[in-house]
Design a protein that fits this description.
- The protein is built from 5 helices and 7 strands.
- A hairpin with a 5-residue loop joins β2 and β3.
- The longest helix is centred in the C-terminal third of the chain and has 13 residues.
């Protein structure tokens, strides 16, 4: 199930390659990526950011999220399931200008609807310092498991 079809009332999936340099800069701003894996914190120019996302795209599905005005305000990264597996590791981020508007909750609800009935388990790690993301996942019914400095949240539709 491809994420390119994902759409919510305020978010539309789009190819990440169409993001403008300014949109990419907003998505890789230090305050946005501070709790993400180290690779997100190192690309300092447009070329390096695109190379990084291209490399990530070799291992996972990467899509941009656009708002109703067509602005690129987010990224979703969803691993391909392992052979014979159903777990897909989820990562997402929003530009600081999109924070506090309930878009992360809307995205997670949209992903749950997208994968409902598919047997897919969504799993995402959250650093303990990132309380906002933890609350979003908990509110959406993800189950937390502590694993060092990270908490891994998982969701699978109850059938």
């Amino acid at each position: 199930m491809s994420l390119v079809d994902l759409q919510t009332s305020r978010l539309q999936a789009a190819p990440w390659q169409g993001l403008a340099e300014a949109e990419l800069a907003g998505l890789f701003a230090p305050k946005v990526v501070q709790w993400l894996p180290a690779g997100f914190q190192t690309p300092e120019d447009g070329g390096a950011r695109r190379a990084f996302l291209e490399a990530v795209s070799q291992q996972a599905e990467v899509i941009a999220l656009r708002n109703a005005a067509g602005q690129g305000i987010g990224l979703v990264i969803l691993s391909h399931p392992e052979e014979g597996g159903s777990t897909r590791n989820l990562g997402y981020l929003f530009a600081g200008s999109a924070w506090g508007q309930g878009l992360a909750s809307e995205l997670i609800a949209g992903l749950q609807a997208h994968f409902r009935g598919s047997g897919v388990t969504l799993s995402g790690g959250v650093m303990q310092e990132n309380g906002a993301s933890a609350r979003v996942l908990e509110k959406a019914g993800f189950t937390p498991v502590h694993s060092g400095a990270e908490i891994v949240y998982s969701w699978r539709e109850e059938g």
